[in-house]
């Protein structure tokens, strides 16, 4: 097998493009994780209102849809779990939300 052919060049270009896109989107990604943080903290304080819950669920949905593209399948899994937790208005567990947000921060280089 030879190395350095068109396939490796294409792979390298794709990786570079994704890295550039990641850097460009970091402020948005950080803000989305901050919304999840606010929702988890509000839930811990017993003050997670519907508006924040809905916003956080939408943010989790967006993260779940994009993190895999950037090579963070674990981030996608955690974001999906957050989306489910936030969507269940009567059963949201504050400690679980906080744990999931902490896990998300640990997997992502923010």
TrEMBL record:
Task: Give any single GO term for biological process.
Answer: phosphorelay signal transduction system
Domain HPt span(s) in chain numbering: 40-105
Q: Which GO terms describe its molecular function?
A: protein kinase activity
This protein's source sits in the domain of life called Bacteria
| Any Pfam family matching the protein | Hpt
Q: What is this protein called?
A: Hpt domain-containing protein
The species is Granulicella pectinivorans
């Amino acid at each position: 097998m030879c190395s350095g052919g068109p396939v490796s060049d294409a792979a390298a270009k794709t990786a570079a493009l994704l890295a550039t896109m990641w850097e460009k989107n970091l402020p948005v990604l950080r803000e989305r994780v901050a919304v999840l943080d606010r929702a988890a903290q509000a839930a811990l304080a017993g003050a997670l209102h519907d508006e924040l819950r809905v916003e956080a669920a939408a943010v989790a949905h967006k993260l779940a849809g994009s993190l895999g593209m950037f090579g963070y399948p674990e981030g996608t899994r955690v974001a999906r779990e957050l989306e489910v937790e936030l969507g269940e208005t009567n059963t949201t567990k504050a400690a679980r939300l906080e744990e999931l947000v902490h896990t998300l921060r640990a997997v992502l280089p923010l």
